[in-house]
Amino acid sequence: MFVSFDGVDGAGKSTQIELFLAWLRASGRDPAACRDPGSTPLGEALRGIVLGHATPLDLRAEMLVYMAARAQLTAELIRPALAAGKIVVSDRYLLANVVYQGHAGGLDVQDLWEVGKIATSGLSPDLTFVLDLPVELAAKRRTDPPDRMESRGLEFQERVRQGFLTEAARLESVLVVDANRTADAIQEDIRSAFTAALKMLSA
Length: 203
Ligand code: ADP
Ligand code: MG
Description:
single chain, alpha/beta, Rossmann fold, five-stranded parallel sheet, globular, binds adenosine-5'-diphosphate, binds magnesium ion
């Protein structure tokens, strides 16, 4: 089973993924964790380019760099892990590309889904958690210096938030989780939704 976490930066993805992985491991599973972009030699190199500030990137080039990183990630890590029967937990995936470069950036959303399909050869998460939080609160939670996406300002982040909500309303596999609560309360919802989805998939 393939599970991804998404949402604006500072929403709590890393926090929730850590708790989720710990719970999976405690229940005797051996999950494979990754981040998109990243988690392969190519993906980590491209992550540095696309999230760093040193290399000028046209929006379309930026979109394709994310896609290239994800193509490598699915081929090198996610597909083999799924084939080995593992639960794969990814910090972001194609949905983020659709939302940041499409809904918020202005590229055609349907085109992004199409390019994503080619890049991943059609591999999409069985379940995606979108951690939803007012963008001002998310910005307050962030402590690291802003990366390329984060430095685009609150108006951009608001379009990102709305993009996630629009896609979640359309896609059955994407669940919105209210992230303006304690980490434990959020995690409880994630675990029960995961358990329900796992039961459905193995039925
Ligand atoms: P993301 O990976 O989505 O950018 P993080 O998990 O790194 O988000 O969380 C961003 C910051 O907010 C961290 O300092 C983290 O400790 C804090 N944080 C995470 N979840 C919560 C929560 N539910 N309530 C308050 N602060 C949180
Ligand atoms: Mg994070």
